[in-house]
Write a structure and sequence with these properties.
The chain is an alpha+beta fold and about 190 residues long. The chain is built from six helices and ten strands; from the N terminus they run αβαβαββββββββααα.
Amino acid sequence: MSFEQCQSVTSLMARFNKTWFIAGGWAIDLFIGKETREHEDLEIALFRKDQLNLKTYLTEWEFKKVIKGEFYNWENEFLELPIHEIHATNKLNGDTIEILLNETKDNEWKFRRDLRICSPLNSVWSYSETGIPYLNPEIVLLYKAKNTREKDHQDFHIIKDYLDNEKRYWLRNALEMHEPEHKWIQFLF
């Protein structure tokens, strides 16, 4: 994969009139502006309230919801927590996208694993130099802090020195609240 796939998804979503953004490792690379490692998949995120709009928008796609690691057909029901992951397949060409639902309340983004952790809605995503929306890195890293894999550690160590003081402070506080023993905390002072 390359940024071309991120651009391809951006083209696919160009007329979707709700907020969405690239998530996961690709979001880290979009923030830095270069590809730092190989990526196995492409994830986009959107706000839970907009899920049915996405399904209506991607008419040629088949959707599966993920419940406890198992895939089930997603009909037209509104998905509530704990369901937060959807996989979509284009019935015409076989393209796939993983979709992650994000929580909001009023004008705040809420961390689904610990609703005490929040951020102003307008501070959750940014745009790359080429106009690709991405989930901001401090939020990506907070999601990666649970069951941290080697690629997650790699993403953290690549990005930590790019984070400004505000992002470092937010991530440190969020980790101290949610994963107080996490080894990344020591690098965020």
